[in-house]
Structure formats: C-alpha cells, structure tokens
Amino acid sequence: MSHQICSRCxxxxxxxxxxxxxxxxxxxxxxxxxxxxxxxxxxxLAEDKISQVLEKVKTSKSGQYDSIVGLSGGVDSxxxxxxxxxxxxxxxxxxxxxxxxxxxxxxxxxxIVKKLNFDLHxxxxxxNEFRSLQRAFFKAHVVDIEVLSDHAIFAVIINLAKKHNIxxxxxxxxxxxxxxxxxxxxxRKQDLKNIRHINKLYGELPMKTFxxxxxxxxxxxxxxxxxxxxxxxNYIDYNKKExxxxxxxxxxxxxxxxxxxxxxxxxxxxxxxxxNKFNIDKRKAHLSTLVLSKQMTREEALEExxxxxxxxxxxxxxxxxxxxxxxxxxEWFEDYMKAPPRSHYEFKSDEKTFQFLALIRDRFFGxxxx
Length: 370
Ligand SMILES: [Zn+2]
What we know:
alpha/beta
C-alpha cells in the first residue's frame, strides 16, 4: 500500500490495518464517531454525572479506602487523584517503581499525595527480575515491551484491592485523549501467558516475584466477583491543556515533554525504538485523538508531528544510559534495531481465553466507554 494520511485526523498507513473511505477519512475516525454516539457527554455534564458516580464509589467503602488510583505521575492519573479529592474520596494511591521512573515523576507524585493527604503505596519491582524480563522482550523482537510494566501495575492493583476489600479502581484511561490506538502497535496487557512464554524462551531468571494476574483472574475479579474499573475522565469535559495547567498551579506539577515520558525507558522506547525498529510513531495516535476531541486542529497536530522525536545529543545520552542499565552492548543493540520485528502471536498467548471471556462479558454486562 502506498503511503496515505487521513484527511480528518493524522493517522496514516503506518497502521497496516487502516482503511479509508471515499473522502479519505480513516477507520479510526469512523470508530471514534461510533463510540462518541454511545457517550452522551452533554447529558453527563448537565446531570453532573461525575458526582453521582463518585458518590457511589464513596459509599461503597467498607475499610479504610473507597478506591484505588494507579499514579504514574502523568497528567491523566494525576488529574484523577485531584478529582477524587474534589469529591471527598479517600483512595489508596499506588505507584509502581520499575527502576525507570524519572526523578521528576517521583517528585510530582509525592507533591500530589502530600497536598491531597492521600496514602501512597509504592511497589518496588525486583530489578534483576524486571531487567531479565525486559531483555527477554528485546530478544523476542516483539513490539510491546511496555506490557511488562502495565501488566505489573494491573496485578499490584488487583492484589491490593482484594487485600483492602476495595471495590473501585479509578483509572486515568479516557476517551477524549486516548481513543485512537492501532491494535498492532500494542499488545493486550493482561496476556500473562505471552509474558511467561517469552521469559521461558529468552529470560535469564524465573518470574518469582514479578506481579502477575492471568486474564481469567482479571476478568473474574472485574465482572461480578470483585472490583470495578471506573474511568472518571469520561464523565467530564476532559481537556489535556487545562488539566496540565491546573496540576501546575495546584501541585507544582512539572511536565515531561511527551506523553508517558515520566519513565526514562518509555521515552527511549517511544521516541527511538518504536519509530526506528517498528516504524511506529505513537504521537500520531495521541495527536489524532486530540484532533477528534477538538482539543487541537489538524494543522496544529501536523506541526507538532513535524518536530523531531529526539534531540541528537539527548538521544546519545539516553541510549548510553538505557543500554548500560539493561546490560546490552551497543553492537547488540544495533543488530536488534536492524532485525525484523516478530509478532506477539508467534509466542503462546491467552488470546482465545480472552476472546471467549469478552464474548460472555459483552453478552451479560454490555460494553461501554464508561
Ligand atoms: Zn482519521
């Protein structure tokens, strides 16, 4: 397929599954419109739905906490913590220390929980085990190395929810700033079987302490038998720029210069590995969502996209740091970058279990953005 860019957002044929209609509008735009139809934001705002749903969370409390908030230090999760405070909730804030968090992220998180007077639980992952897992994912040449951190935080949250008898997880995931993401650019975070198999083939250490939760456990706990994930940002008119400004003003929060750059690894992965090995520039998805939710014009998004992903000097510094920390030689890394990507599905996966459970979920519980 020759290169084509959507006439409405800025997604293009670097998503191999993208399709375009006669007007050149892409499939992501059409799915966005379809979901937006099921998302009556105006009604939510008029009815102050956010107060209603968070009141439900508040009254569900049976122990010390009414909810859990996973805090990465990024805009979305920080803003959720702020909302929880505004509505009188007492969440347990959870942070994952995987060895890659920037000092800025740690200081942002501490500022927020201190000012809001929330408890913070920091789960420190065994670094040797995590490094072995990350190295294994490099050797497997699969696209989603971040599955590891995302899986771990999910698992930590599930375990804490169970331990403290907490019914609600407040997630920073949201439609207004995250709706567009090609399936082939990421892998499903709950796929423990995939992580285990890749570690078995390429890992140097067994997964002894790495936080784990299978798809089955996750789905069982989420639907009926335990906690519920709530996405408060979907009930408000969530605007990225305004949220950032509020965090700066109230919490002395400082920005990272890119979505998910609160982790040094994530920055290197998104701004160097993904574009150069996998031909994926995630800014296209992030910016397209902002265009579709009218927080940015298409021209502004294209302008932003034309900026270089990395300052050359900074890239060299970050590369040296990441490779040293992972114990990879520059020669090995160069070969890695040139080698063709492999699909997650070349390895074992619990996708079939998930598909089956999703079918049951949609049949009995319905699916929606909230
Ligand atoms: Zn589009």
